[in-house]
Amino acid sequence: MYRTHPSRPAPCSGPVAEPGAESVLECGEAFDVLWVPEPAGRWALRRLIGYRQPALAPGPVALSEDGSACLYLVAPGARDDLPELLDWLEWGGIDLGLRGYGAGDRLARPKVWLHDEHAPAPEVIALLATIAQCCSRRLLRRAVPGQRAESGD
What we know:
- The chain has helices at 38-51, 78-88, 125-142; strands at 24-26, 32-37, 61-63, 69-74, 99-101, 106-108, 112-115.
- It is of the alpha+beta class.
- It has one domain.
- The two termini are 25 Å apart.
């Protein structure tokens, strides 16, 4: 069971834009968001949970409003660090389909949570190797007719 970190507000506690407006998540203060293509995002989530390692716990993960992506809520600063971390992990220069959202970015508040929305937002480096590998495999398998990206764990 995950608990929220006492010094960090729950990820879904971001402010609402204005009264009557659609609920949004304000990125950058309590968390950043890593946007991962849906098939790879679900596959990575299964793998991260399967590791059963507290250091690799995925934290909050939601499905994007249109269902095309998994939204990993991670520690603030991840958006700005993403290119450098991908280079360090030797994934630099490869378009894995990942996007980062941080300070000043706003996303629609998710309706579908795939993993504990109240878990603390982890450091992105703890998750990124697994997520990048799943994105890479998704890209490689897209070209093979009849083969699903998440098969072959």
